[in-house]
Amino acid sequence: MTNNTGEPVAQAHFRGVLQSPGRSTPWMDETFFYTISGGIEPGETLEWSLAPDSTEAWGSPSISDDAQLSIEVLRLDGPTGDMLWERP
């Protein structure tokens, strides 16, 4: 993730869709947020490796091995919790 906002970002809200090719119904379509340890400064790029918790639906063993995850950013919050940006 690269912060192109001009403001420090402390938390990002996402929509994640997990779907297999040829499958009309996604395995998952949910929103979630990620608190960025130490935040991300303007112009800074961070790389994350997020893994599902096996006790939650995202980690279900019934999800096909060919499933693909797409992520879209819904909202960004600053260090004081103020909303910096929200998807229209």
Task: Give a concise summary.
The chain has strands at 9-19, 28-40, 68-77, 83-86. It is an all-beta fold and 88 residues long.
Total beta strand runs: 4
Taken in chain order, the helices and strands follow as EEEE
Instruction: Describe the strand arrangement of the main beta sheet, using strand numbers.
Output: 2-1-3-4
Q: What distance lies between the first and last C-alpha atoms, to the nearest angstrom? A: 20 Å
Low-confidence stretches: none
Q: Choose one word for the global shape.
A: elongated
| SS content category | mainly beta
Structure annotation, total helices: 0
Please give the radius of gyration in angstroms.
Answer: 15 Å
Write up what this structure looks like.
It is built from no helices and 4 strands. It has 88 residues and is an all-beta fold. A hairpin with a 5-residue loop joins strand 3 and strand 4.
List its salient traits.
single chain; 88 residues; mainly beta; elongated; 0% helix; 4-stranded antiparallel β-sheet; 4 strands
